[in-house]
Amino acid sequence: MRNKIQGTGVAIVTPFKGDGSVDFPALERLILHLIGGAVDFIVAMGTTSEAVTLSNEERGQVLDFVKQQIEGKVPLVLGVGGNNTAAVVDQLRETDFTGIEAILSVAPYYNKPNQRGLYAHFSSIAKASPVPVILYNVPGRTSSNLTASTTLSLANDFNNIIAIKEASGDLSQVMQILRTKPRDFMVLSGDDALTFPLIALGAQGVISVVANVLPAEFSSMVTHALQGRMEEAKTLHYQMLPLIDLLFADGNPAGIKAALHIKGICENNLRLPLVTVRDEVYNGLSVLL
């Protein structure tokens, strides 16, 4: 399992039509684009998917459609998280995990639990999950930072907690995890701009946003880095860096949806409270793409 969830993972968007409904033909184009770009795995229902704005029925329809399109060609990771531990556990019990290799579970948001609360939350998820668990630490969105100490405790105490998507932006914290983690516990970058340096420090891959639009290029950079061809990886890293920076200028997934629209893969529609990028950002992305 651990060998399947490494390299370049992509947190996919949910394309919407102008009327706000899910655009399934565009979702099919996106998945074909990613598989053709040689990504290593796909993450559905993550932050980039705007999953919090989907109804339960829509989430089920999108997940079923993604499974059908992937057809086992690449591993599928499902986002299952929240700030109500009991509700997350119930969701785990009710989900059909056929075709799902692992879950990605974000740290609780809004409640601002302390480290003991975070440990208890993820302990409950690990005990309830029928598939391996990837922790997701993104304090910029959740206001709760999963510290290196808590991450390492969870990694050592639960065999089915196999990785962390680290998006704290704190290189010191990530290095603490990398330095003392269990041998088979993986660190995945949650920040496209830091993926190359994190792999140089020992990370095993990324769950990427930019790879939605540049799957072949980003996958190539990650593969070069993981195989020790650091000069080739560094060249690609710096080539993509201006695009990565601009993609997040007006937030995620607004930037990546604009980029995918420019590439003709999906319409440039989001669900409130998210809105499309400013004209200057869209025009800048058009130049870079």
Kindly describe this structure.
An 8-stranded parallel β-barrel has the order 1-2-3-4-5-6-7-8, surrounded by 6 helices. α1 runs parallel beside α2 and α9 packs across α10 (230-247). It has helices spanning 24-36, 56-70, 85-94, 115-128, 139-142, 148-157, 171-180, 195-201, 215-226, 230-247, 254-262, 279-288, and strands at 7-11, 41-44, 76-79, 102-106, 133-137, 161-166, 186-189, 205-208. It is of the alpha/beta class and 289 residues long. It has a single domain (7-227), classed as TIM Barrel. The chain contains 12 helices and 8 strands. α2 links the parallel β2 and β3.
Question: How are the SSEs placed, and which strands pair?
Answer:
Elements: E1 7-11, H1 24-36, E2 41-44, H2 56-70, E3 76-79, H3 85-94, E4 102-106, H4 115-128, E5 133-137, H5 139-142, H6 148-157, E6 161-166, H7 171-180, E7 186-189, H8 195-201, E8 205-208, H9 215-226, H10 230-247, H11 254-262, H12 279-288
Parallel strand pairs: 1-2, 1-8, 2-3, 3-4, 4-5, 5-6, 6-7, 7-8
Helix pairs in contact: 1-2, 3-4, 4-6, 6-7, 8-9, 9-10, 10-12, 11-12
Relevant terms:
12 helices, 289 residues, single chain, TIM Barrel, alpha/beta
Largest sheet: 8 strands, parallel, barrel
The main sheet orders its strands as 1-2-3-4-5-6-7-8
Measured between the Cα atoms of the first and last residue, the distance is 35 Å
CATH class equals Alpha Beta
Query: CATH topology, anyone?
Result: TIM Barrel
Classified in CATH, the superfamily is Aldolase class I
Contiguous uncertain segments of 5+ residues:
none
Can you count the beta strands? 8
